[in-house]
## 1
Amino acid sequence: MLIVMRSDATAEQIARVVATIAELKLTPHPLPGATRTAIGMTGNTAAVSKSLFEVLPGVENAIRVTKPYKLASREMKKDDTVIGNIGPKTFTVIAGPCSVENEEITLRMAEHLMNKGVRYLRAGAFKPRSSPYSFQGLGLEGLRILERVRAKTGIGIVTELMDTEHAAAVEAASDIIQIGTRNMQNFGLLKRVGQCRKPVLLKRGMSATLEEWLMAAEYIMAGGNYEVILCERGVRTFSDHSRNTLDLSVVPVAKNLSHLPVFVDPSHGVGKRAYVPAMTYASMASGADGVLLEAHPDPDHALSDGAQTIDFDTLDAVLAKLTAMANLFGRTLG
Ligand code: PEP
Ligand code: MN
């Protein structure tokens, strides 16, 4: 159930609803919106009577959420969720190498991005590689490099968490924690990042439906971390002209069903660098709130995913075109 507060509800009135939910041994989830606060409740809500809440001061109404995902649903919150600068007014570019390779490349990348106004660097220290013989990432040493680069440049860090064991270390080194496609239904990991106090970028599982993806977001939110960014990165289909099939059609639907920001990762979506710019522009047109791009000073010598990685010149051209396009879509490049 969802309790919608009146727009003039006081903090005390909100606190009273929260306390009433807790007395029922249910978990309250207050989500402030632009105009009003809505308070979700999770646990067994089947027997809870709406009138219990509708009589409380400051309550507008109580609504039964019909979707299997609750906190992630648009029913829960009409306004788009804004996470830092990420939201409906901006289009946020997150770029960088697939992996943290060494300090020199990571720093060069971060400095280039900061000069171009890009405020987030992506780079994996822990890499989920299909082959155990491929480069597995620098692990904890990679996180130390990211921390030093963040300290030197002030750039925000987006890096993947693969297992619960490294949750605290990744949380400390990152500004956004990435959960990869292969872990979208790793429920132990989702519950663990639900305890983190950093936003989570949740990639869509490569064969997950939209509902399964939103349920994965719900796992994180049910733990009390409401800052989830959805990221489409391509799904498995019969098509073999691209690494995956970038499902841009999911973007407007996800934004309709959920208030969470939706990103697109064209790099993993197409798998070939020549096609990354076109699908980046298409991502903005689809209504996405941002993109995750693999970029590297020397993509041909990247230690992972070089084939889909763009160089600095291409990145600069993409940023220039996105800046021009952003006006059309009522956004500014963030
Ligand atoms: C990545 O971002 O480098 C990555 C491994 O992504 P995905 O989980 O989408 O394959
Ligand atoms: Mn990659």
Note: The pocket of manganese (II) ion (ligand 2) is lined by residues 98, 268, 294, 304-305 (CB under 6 Å).
## 2
Amino acid sequence: MSTHLRHLITLQNMDASTIQHLLNRAESLREACAHGTRRIELLRGRTVLNLFFEPSTRTRTSFELAARRLGADVVNFDIAGSSTSKGETLLDTLHTLEAMHLDALIVRHRESGTPEFLVHHAASAVCVVNAGDGNHAHPTQGLLDALTIRQHRPNFNLLTVTICGDVLHSRVARSDVHALQALGARAIRLCGPRALLPDPSEFPGCTLHEDFDDAVEGSDVIIMLRLQKERMIATLLPDEAAYFERYGLTQERLRRSASGALVLHPGPINRGIEIASEVADGTQSRILEQVANGVFVRMAVLAELLAR
Ligand code: NCD
């Protein structure tokens, strides 16, 4: 691996060899822990804290399982029951938690830049892992998506990948693009209604599409995104039925893609809004494989950051 990771904040500017190394490590840890049935004591005595200021099902649970399966102690900080609700600032919360000794802090926050802010203000040697900040980055999701794709299509430079939905507000889209570009994906198409497409200057090398039928044509991988209503300032959308009509991934649309195209979605999925149930549950869906890979990728990241 070319650079030693101290924190994991973004995949932007991470090189292909570092990404491949993390994916390889995820696969070897999957074998070493017998697909999650055996614990490894690599991080015994280390303490990992989950600090989630936004809701999470997959990411929080998989970080917890990842840390436990490596033998670490895990604390799930309960924001609702904490002094954050009594007005304590983020920095006072950070320094209070650090005073109890932490090795890693897994943070999710609605504000882009929060994980980096914590890195700059940490008083200890705690490692900070970004579990999703605003629309900025979700690096472990980018890695687990890359791993899921690599398992089926190891040759990234043959791949056309379409990312469809609320790209504007999606930290997943950003981290996926960074990983896919580093790994040499041939083409990346970003698709959605105009109001939910980003400024093209933010995504050099990607093409923007408003017509999903065109975008899906010949794609090898289709990554669907949820409408992130919690990040929309004004209502940017027609009603959900009209959205599904134009941007929902149906079996019929999927037939336009390359044969055997992979269907991914970071979850939570909204059936009948961005994806039809028959596709989400169909033979081309890799959604639950993504979830499974999430644990091993997070084990790899924690091992990389924390193992002495
Ligand atoms: C995503 C997130 O929180 O960014 N979910 C996830 O981590 N698996 C995507 C979303 O919320 O739509």
Note: The radius of gyration is 19 Å.
